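lol forgot to send this yesterday, sorry. C-alpha cells for the thing we talked abt
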C-alpha cells in the first residue's frame, strides 16, 4: 500500500503545490493590473502562467522524485533526474523569454502612448523588437548549451573542444561571415536609426512600407501587397530612398506633355479647384509651371503636397486624371498631336489664347 500511496502523494502534492503557486501569482498580477491600469506590464505578465506552472511543477518533482522510493523509478533514477532537469531548463528559458517579452512590450506601449512623434515611435519599436529577438536568441542558445552539458559525454567533448577553440573560432568566423555581417547590420539599423518599422522606402525600384525587421532580414510590403525579403546588410551597404526620414510630409510632382498652345493660366486655376476638392491634399502648397520645351511639345510640372506618402500618391493620381480629362473636354487643342498643316494655328483658331493675350 505504501508503494502506491507514496508516488501518488509526491506527484499529486507537487501538482497541487505548483497549481496553487501559479494561481496565487495570477491573482496578484490581476489585482496589480486592476489597481494600475496605466501600466500594461501586469496584464502582459499574466501570459507567463503556463511556463511558471511548468517550472514550479518540474522543480518540485526534481527535488522530491527520490522520495517516491518506487522500484521502477529507482531503477531509472538517473535517467528520470536528467529528464526532469532538461524539462526544467527548457521551461525556465520559456519563462525568461516570456518575461522579457512582457517587459519590452510594456515599455514600448507606455512610450508610444506618451509620444506624439510617429518617427520616434517607429524608431523605438524597431529597437525594442530587435532587442527582444537578441534576448530570445541568447536565452535559447544558453538553454541548449545547458541541456547538452547535462550529458556526461557532451561534457567530455566540451573539454576537448575548448582545446581547439582558436581553430574552431577562425573557421566559424569565416563560415559565418555573411550571417555575422547581417547580425551587426541589424544592430546598426536598430540603433543607427537608418530605417524603422513603418517607414516608406523605395528599394530596387519598388515602393513599399517596412513591415518587419529581424536580426538577419528585412521585409518590405509593396503597394500591391507583395513582400520583398532582403538581407539587412543591403540597407547599410547600398543606397535606398526613405520617404519617412526627417518627417512624413511629402511633396509630389505630376508631369504633362502638352501642345505649345496649352492654356497655362487656366490650368493653374483648374489645379487649385481640383486640390480644394481633394481630401488627401494637406493645403500647404501647390504650383504649376512649364519646365521644358521641345519642337513639338512643352513639359508642364504640377507640384502638390500631402501629409504622408499614401496621400501624396492619391493627390498625384487625382490631379493627373482630372487635369487630363478637363483638357480633353475643354481644351482639346492643348493635347499633343501630329501637326500636318503648313502653318501653326493662329490665335483666332484658339479663343483661349486670344483672351490671354488681351
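and heres what i got for the seq, position by position
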Amino acid at each position: 500500500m505504501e508503494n502506491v500511496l507514496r508516488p501518488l502523494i509526491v506527484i499529486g502534492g507537487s501538482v497541487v503545490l505548483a497549481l496553487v503557486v501559479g494561481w496565487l501569482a495570477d491573482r496578484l498580477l490581476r489585482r496589480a493590473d486592476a489597481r494600475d491600469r496605466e501600466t500594461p506590464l501586469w496584464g502582459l505578465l499574466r501570459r507567463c502562467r503556463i511556463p511558471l506552472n511548468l517550472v514550479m511543477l518540474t522543480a518540485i518533482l526534481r527535488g522530491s522524485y527520490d522520495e517516491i522510493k518506487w522500484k521502477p523509478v529507482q531503477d531509472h533514477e538517473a535517467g528520470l533526474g536528467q529528464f526532469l532537469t532538461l524539462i526544467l531548463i527548457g521551461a525556465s528559458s520559456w519563462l525568461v523569454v516570456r518575461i522579457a517579452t512582457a517587459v519590452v512590450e510594456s515599455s514600448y506601449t507606455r512610450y508610444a502612448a506618451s509620444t506624439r512623434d510617429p518617427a520616434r515611435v517607429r524608431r523605438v519599436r524597431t529597437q525594442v523588437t530587435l532587442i527582444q529577438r537578441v534576448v530570445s536568441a541568447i536565452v535559447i542558445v544558453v538553454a541548449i548549451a545547458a541541456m547538452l552539458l547535462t550529458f556526461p559525454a557532451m561534457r567530455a567533448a566540451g573539454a576537448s573542444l575548448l582545446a581547439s577553440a582558436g581553430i574552431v573560432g577562425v573557421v566559424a568566423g569565416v563560415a559565418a561571415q555573411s550571417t555575422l555581417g547581417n547580425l551587426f547590420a541589424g544592430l546598426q539599423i536598430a540603433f543607427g536609426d537608418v530605417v524603422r518599422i513603418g517607414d516608406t522606402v523605395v528599394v530596387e525600384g519598388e515602393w513599399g512600407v517596412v513591415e518587419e525587421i529581424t536580426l538577419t532580414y528585412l521585409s518590405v510590403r509593396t503597394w500591391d501587397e507583395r513582400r520583398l525579403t532582403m538581407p539587412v546588410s543591403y540597407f547599410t551597404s547600398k543606397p535606398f530612398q526613405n520617404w519617412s526620414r526627417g518627417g512624413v510630409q511629402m511633396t509630389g510632382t505630376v508631369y504633362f506633355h502638352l501642345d505649345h498652345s496649352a492654356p497655362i493660366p487656366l490650368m493653374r486655376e483648374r489645379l487649385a479647384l481640383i486640390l480644394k476638392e481633394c481630401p488627401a491634399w494637406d493645403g500647404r502648397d501647390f504650383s504649376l509651371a512649364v519646365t521644358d520645351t521641345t519642337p513639338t511639345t512643352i513639359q508642364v510640372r504640377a507640384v502638390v503636397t500631402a501629409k504622408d506618402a499614401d496621400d501624396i500618391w492619391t493627390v498625384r493620381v487625382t490631379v493627373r486624371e482630372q487635369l487630363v480629362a478637363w483638357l480633353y473636354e475643354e481644351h482639346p487643342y492643348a493635347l499633343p498631336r501630329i501637326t500636318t498643316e503648313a502653318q501653326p494655328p493662329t490665335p483666332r483658331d484658339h479663343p483661349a489664347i486670344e483672351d490671354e493675350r488681351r
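DSSP finds 13 helices and eight strands in the chain. anyway ping me if u want another try
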